[in-house]
């Protein structure tokens, strides 16, 4: 028994007062306590009782990774969709320009309109009317009256883009549920283009050219009215071509 144990036994015997020998087998001695303290693991802030640590090889793999750049893949997808649409157009399954221009030459309120062979329209002169006015009430039929046309033969359900206007000219399409109703207005102006959607509710359509207030075309400009499927992003003008059904008829 070492000195520490003798001292501990004496203290326990003093407090016990039973006169019996004190059993020290259940008590740690200093060397045992020191050994336990030296081998203990200190608590790390934020850590639990166990961790799922990576091996060095795993960490090396992770360090070698970088964010995936999908720019080229997205571009290829866009190009594929565009090319598919253009192929359908070339083969005749899908026409690029769905707006058939049946208008005739006209002079109105100081503005002269000439319809070219490719369906484009040349405008010259100035608006002497002082307010906006329609030079063509209906591009699709060329009719000045009976403006609305049954839409079943014009634009099937889908997404489209109206384009081809220039400064001083508004291209307009109105989609209506009821014949001779103003309905929903779609307009392209100042050379811009406008996206729109056709649904089952749009049973009638009215397409027209509106000359804006104080429009002055001088010696002349040319506009290229076109409605194309929204999946065709190329806005280059293409003349209207009859559908397969029209050609067969």
Quick summary:
The chain has helices at residues 3-16, 30-38, 56-63, 71-91, 244-248, and strands at residues 106-108, 111-115, 121-125, 133-136, 149-150, 158-163, 169-176, 184-189, 194-198, 204-211, 221-223, 226-229. The chain has 249 residues and is an alpha+beta fold. The longest helix is centred in the first third of the chain and has 21 residues, at 71-91.
Category from helices, strands and their pairing: alpha+beta
Low-confidence stretches: none
Mean pLDDT, all residues: 80
Most strands sheet: 5 strands, antiparallel
Order of helices and strands: HHHHEEEEEEEEEEEEH
Based on CA inertia axes, which overall geometry fits? Answer: rod-shaped
Question: Termini distance?
Answer: 120 Å
Percentage of residues in strands? 15-25%
The proportion of residues forming helix, as a percent range, comes to 10-25%
The tally of beta strands, per DSSP, is: 12
What is the alpha-carbon Rg in Å?
A: 43 Å
Number of helices: 5
């Amino acid at each position: 028994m070492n000195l520490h144990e003798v001292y501990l036994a004496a203290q326990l015997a003093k407090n016990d007062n039973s006169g019996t020998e004190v059993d020290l087998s259940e008590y740690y001695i200093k060397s045992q306590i020191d050994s336990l303290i030296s081998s203990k693991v200190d608590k790390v802030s934020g850590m639990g009782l166990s961790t799922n640590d990576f091996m060095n090889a795993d960490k090396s793999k992770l360090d070698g990774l970088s964010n995936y750049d999908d720019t080229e893949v997205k571009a290829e997808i866009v190009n594929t969709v565009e090319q598919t649409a253009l192929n359908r157009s070339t083969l005749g399954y899908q026409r690029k320009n769905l707006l058939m221009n049946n208008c005739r030459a006209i002079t109105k309120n100081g503005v002269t309109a000439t319809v070219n062979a490719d369906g484009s329209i040349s405008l010259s002169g100035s608006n002497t009317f002082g307010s906006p006015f329609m030079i063509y009430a209906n591009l699709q039929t060329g009719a000045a009256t009976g403006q609305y046309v049954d839409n079943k033969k014009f634009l099937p359900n889908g997404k489209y883009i109206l384009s081809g206007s220039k400064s001083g000219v508004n291209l307009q399409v109105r989609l209506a549920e009821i014949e001779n109703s103003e309905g929903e207005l779609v307009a392209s102006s100042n050379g811009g283009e406008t996206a729109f959607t056709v649904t089952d509710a749009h049973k009638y359509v009215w397409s027209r050219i509106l000359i804006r207030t104080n429009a002055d075309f001088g010696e002349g400009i040319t506009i290229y009215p076109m409605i194309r499927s929204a999946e065709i992003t190329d806005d280059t003008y293409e003349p209207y071509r009859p559908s397969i059904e029209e050609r067969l008829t």
